[in-house]
Amino acid sequence: MNFSIFTLIQLDESSGNSVLQNVIGVFVTVGVVSICMYYVLRYLETVYSRRNKKPYFVHFYFKIKKLPETLTPFLLKNSFYSSLDKQRKRYFEHRTFRFLQEINFVGREGLVIDDFMRMQISMMVVQLTFGMREYLLEYLNTIVIYPTSFYSILNQTQNNGEFNPRSKALALSWEHFQRGNQHKDDGKSLGIHEITHAIHYNSIKNTDISSEIFYDTFLMLEEYLGAQEIRQKLVETRILREYAYTDKFEFIAVLVEVFMETPLELKKKFPEIYGYVAQMLNFRYFED
């Protein structure tokens, strides 16, 4: 009798261990297969992007978010949003909602941040990254707004804007940000300039497909600009202001300003350079 009970207990324990081992085995197998599939798909997308110069897809969301009704009027006044089709408008609104969720806005020197400020800056970031899959930049989680020019402890200079990757912060003079918005055809925008710095830095540090395309295309653009005649023509036409020639980071920031504000002029005078910028940002909306 005791022997039978002991045998049954052993069988029960063996059965329990077998079930547990099977469950663990299933989870391990699923995990290994998932990892393998991820890297295979990642490799295939890299091949696709190098051939087609764009991600396999950009927009995919499990649930599209909508902005509160109080913020909708700001959205409707945005010229880029208004130019989009119905589906893309939903994507733009969703990205703006998510950006507002993720970013901490901070006012300095007594400046009170309101919805208008948040929306103007958020919509500009969303526009610049609208062709990129990863639009929530890893190295940007705080936006500091000053009433006007401010003293930068980091650079020990008087600035209108700066990007600090260590603090993951973007600092802007609201006066100069607004000035750029009021003159949208002069190829000069503080917001576009500083946000481009954040995108550029993010592309250097990350390996997502959009970052790879941005950085790889930037290297191609650098090689193209190695030709003396191209550089000379750029300088002579004065399509870029002198500050662009400070270094390669300022060059691309000023170039994106011109691309966003005067795309037709850039495309007419320098179609190859226009193409490189469109490819870097996967921004084809001026061509629709």
Percentage of residues in strands: 5-15%
Low-confidence stretches: none
- What is the CATH superfamily of the largest domain? Glucose-regulated metallo-peptidase M90, N-terminal domain
Number of helices: 12
* Nearest-integer average pLDDT: 87
**Structural class, from helix and strand content?**
alpha/beta
Query: What fold name stands as the CATH topology of the largest domain?
Result: Cyclin A, domain 1
What would you call the shape? globular
Q: What is the number of beta strands?
A: 6
Give me the Rg, rounded. 25 Å
CATH top level of the largest domain?
A: Mainly Alpha
Transmembrane segments: 20-41
Keywords: Membrane, Transmembrane, Transmembrane helix
InterPro entries: MetalloPept_cat_dom_sf, MtfA_fam, MtfA_N
Protein name: DgsA anti-repressor MtfA
Describe this structure as you would to a colleague.
It is a single chain. The chain is an alpha/beta fold and 288 residues long. It folds into two domains: 28-57; 72-287, Glucose-regulated metallo-peptidase M90, N-terminal domain (Cyclin A, domain 1), CATH 1.10.472.150. Helices cover 61% and strands 8% of the residues. The chain contains twelve helices and six strands. It has a four-stranded mixed β-sheet. A hairpin with a 4-residue loop joins strand 5 (161-164) and strand 6 (169-173). Helix 4 crosses helix 5, helix 8 (209-224) runs antiparallel to helix 12 (271-281) and helix 10 (248-261) packs across helix 11 (263-269). The radius of gyration is 25 Å and the shape is globular. The mean pLDDT is 87.
